[in-house]
Amino acid sequence: MLHLWVTLFSLCIYAIAQRHHHSSEQHQEALISVPGDFTFDTNSQIPLSEEPWTSKYGAQNDLGYSGPLSFSHFKYRKCLEDASAPFDIGIIGFPFDTTTSYRPGARFGPYAIRSGSRRQSLGAGRGYTLAWGSSPSDFGSSLLDCGDVPISAYDNAKAIDQMEAAYSTLLSRPVLGGTSEVYKEKTRAFSLDGKEHPRIVTLGGDHTIVLPILRSLHKVYGPVSVIHFDAHLDTWPPRGTTAQEGITHGSFFAVAAEEGLLTNTSIHAGIRCKMLGIEDMQHDDTVGFQVISAEDIDDYGIKKVIEKIRERIRDKPVYLSLDIDVVDPGQAPATGTPEVGGWTTREVKRILRGLSGLNFVGADIVEVAPAYDNAEITGIAAADIVHDFLSMMLVDGPPQPHNGPFSNIDLVS
Hints:
The chain has 413 residues and is an alpha/beta fold. It is built from eleven helices and eight strands. Helix 4 packs parallel to helix 5, helix 5 packs parallel to helix 6 (252-258) and helix 10 runs parallel beside helix 11. It is globular, with a radius of gyration of 27 Å.
């Protein structure tokens, strides 16, 4: 009899255990089936307008120093994996710095530039300046921050290929085609396929990022001219015992010329570095560049600098690359290879305004290394220059001088 009760008790325990196990599996399946983003449509059920915050203060607007970090509070997408938001001009970060020759750290440049842009709030409509007489948002182009490319920090060949693949991906996307009737196409007239293509402003990263960018642009536009703001030539012949070792932030233009990516009508602005000798300048000429030195701004003036750059480029498709070390390290210390005697931020911004109306196919700002910064002054300067890039790429020509109490007869000749 006892044996019978023990058997019955064991069967009951087994049945209870099986029931519990089956219930746990169903519970796990239910948990697994919950959407990963935990997004539910509750706005229609919750009376937001009657809640304490909304009824008193309205929308949850970001302040200059709050909210998710995107350039100037732009809308943000990871564009390489999300094509749901077409754009006319995109911002992309290339956090890469493993071909530097002196101080590394420019992989943190995209973050520093976005951080420096927070107070601009262009994405919230705060972009008008007296210098431009307009805001980038006035021209009907869709502006989007496309995030950063996840670039290898260990394999330079892979990293350069990743940057080319990313840039080519964005360059091949269809444009939005404007947000209003004031929008104007800018690239269809000289693209090889006769289509309008997005334009990209890239946040570097060390200057080698320009090589994969030029490779991508060549597929769409053929050889392009380059306006190169920098303290250094960056056209030195590749050196090293391997092909990859020869690609650095000081040789990438020479590599680009060898690959046929450049026209013979490019130009430097702000050069003031130490060289081996006149042979460096002679080689630079074979790469296809003219040189405007940092001192030329004193001898000839800003107007002549602008005039000579425009004469050199004329109506060709042109790419603008700006190394932050073109600015004097007293105003932009956070860079890898600082050179004293540079231009001021105001001089650089003035020249950029004077270049408006050229056929820009893209632009970048590079070599911002925030570990060497003080009170974010370099990041803030770089962000403001990017704001100028956007206006420069959108307006039809240089803006007129601000009048105020002045008239045209008061202008400096």
